[in-house]
């Protein structure tokens, strides 16, 4: 192993093998990174088309390249854990924003969902992961990805600030709960479920379900929603939704349904449209 | 983790990158959410990254400085202007 002081996680008693959990989690994150690369590529194109080429559209293009690199970093971790065969990226349709929106609105929706919500949540989780991770390879990867995530989140807040200066953005309000729900469903819930009932794996970049929920709730209520309020967007419904769905009492991560189709902007769950975003405990 | 700093780094930092100045860059807090305790996690935001395009400007002394009002995080590559 690469570190004398820290070995692979070991099973305790009859519990699930923690190494399998670490492998599964980082394997899942790798797939999410590949998906994110496509999402940011699409967002960059959308920004350039709808708003013109700019520093922000270039940041999105860079984010796409970053995400591809992140997938490679995840592979390096998996190799350290003895894996050398990687799951293929599943086919999925990428759509920018709900279909009822015109291009400019759809692109802004996508920037907000992907960067302001998903990447902001991701940044907060990574900050805590960086504090707790001890395994050298994972620690280095977490640090590198966190550095990129900050920029990925900022590009969405930058586009929102720019749009709010020029046009009405309050129409985003009714969509916020769905964006938050989508982020939790697609990227938070699976790793949280994997980590349930196993020993503490924070040294390997996997936060406990409880800690994850606490960080997410705090970030939504004290960073994301206040950010939207800064730009005149009503967050009352989203705040109520977030408190109930992310609370420790009600948020065991198993009551939010499941996503059956990988679509960036919107998927359907029980006939109800749900925005498709991605987040971290994924790492970016 | 300092949650207010996260707000400054991401939300205010993003606005600064776009060239939009926020008249009031403080974090608005609703009455309900202000009652929630801050978690201990946020102290880690004392670390700083600042090699972000658009975050730095060249000061009078020729050295790179962070744009006024820009909150960095983790390993700044330029000096913060006073």
List the helices and strands and how they pair.
The complex is a heterodimer of chains A (284) and B (82).
Chain A: H1 18-51, H2 55-80, H3 103-132, H4 136-166, H5 176-195, H6 209-230, H7 236-246, E1 266-269, E2 272-275
Antiparallel strand pairs in A: 1-2
Chain B: H1 3-18, E1 56-58, E2 64-66, E3 79-80
Parallel strand pairs in B: 2-3
Antiparallel strand pairs in B: 1-2
Description:
The complex is a heterodimer of chains A (284) and B (82). Chain A is mainly α and 284 residues long. Chain A has one domain: Ferritin, core subunit, four-helix bundle (Ferritin, Up-down Bundle), CATH 1.20.1260.10. In chain A, 61% of the residues lie in helices and 3% in strands. Chain A is built from seven helices and two strands. Chain A has a two-stranded antiparallel ribbon. In chain A, helix 1 runs antiparallel to helix 5, helix 5 packs parallel to helix 7 and helix 6 runs antiparallel to helix 7. Chain A is globular and about 50 Å long. Chain A starts with 17 loop residues before the first helix and ends in a 9-residue tail after the last strand. Chain B has 82 residues and is α+β, with helices and mostly antiparallel strands. Chain B has one domain. Chain B has a three-stranded mixed beta sheet, with no helix packed on it. The two termini of chain B are 23 Å apart. The C terminus of chain B is likely disordered. Chains A and B meet through helix 2, helix 3, helix 4 and helix 6 of A and helix 1 of B.
């Amino acid at each position: 192993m690469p570190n004398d002081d820290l070995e692979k996680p070991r099973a305790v008693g009859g519990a699930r093998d923690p190494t399998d959990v670490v492998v599964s989690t980082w394997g899942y994150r790798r797939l999410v990174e590949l998906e994110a690369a496509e999402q940011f590529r699409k967002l960059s194109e959308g920004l350039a088309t709808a708003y013109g080429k700019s520093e922000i559209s270039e940041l999105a293009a860079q984010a796409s390249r970053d995400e591809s690199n992140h997938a490679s970093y995840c592979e390096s971790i998996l190799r350290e854990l003895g894996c050398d065969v990687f799951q293929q990226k599943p086919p999925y349709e990428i759509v920018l924003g709900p279909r009822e929106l015109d291009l400019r609105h759809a692109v802004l929706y996508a920037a907000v969902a992907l960067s302001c919500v998903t990447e902001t949540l991701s940044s907060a989780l990574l900050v805590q992961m960086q504090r707790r991770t001890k395994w050298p390879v994972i620690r280095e990867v977490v640090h590198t990805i966190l550095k990129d995530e900050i920029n990925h989140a900022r590009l969405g807040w930058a586009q929102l600030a720019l749009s709010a200066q020029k046009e009405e953005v309050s129409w985003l309000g009714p969509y916020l709960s769905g964006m938050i729900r989508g982020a939790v469903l697609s990227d938070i819930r699976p790793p949280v479920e994997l980590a349930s009932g196993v020993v503490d794996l924070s040294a390997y970049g996997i936060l406990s379900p409880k800690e994850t929920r606490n960080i997410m709730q705090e970030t939504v209520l004290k960073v994301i929603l206040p950010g939207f309020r800064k730009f005149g967007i009503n967050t009352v419904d989203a705040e109520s939704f977030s408190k109930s769905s992310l609370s420790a009492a009600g948020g065991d991560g198993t009551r939010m349904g499941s996503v059956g189709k990988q679509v960036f902007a919107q998927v359907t769950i029980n006939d109800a449209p749900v925005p498709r975003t991605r987040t971290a405990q994924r790492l970016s | 983790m300092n949650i207010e700093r996260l707000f400054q780094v991401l939300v205010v930092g993003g606005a600064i990158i776009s060239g939009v100045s926020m008249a009031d860059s403080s974090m608005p807090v609703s009455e309900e959410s202000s009652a929630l305790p801050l978690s201990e996690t946020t102290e880690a935001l004392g670390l700083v990254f600042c090699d972000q395009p658009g975050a730095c400007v060249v000061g009078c002394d020729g050295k790179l400085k962070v744009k006024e009002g820009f909150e960095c995080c983790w390993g700044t590559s330029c000096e913060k202007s006073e």
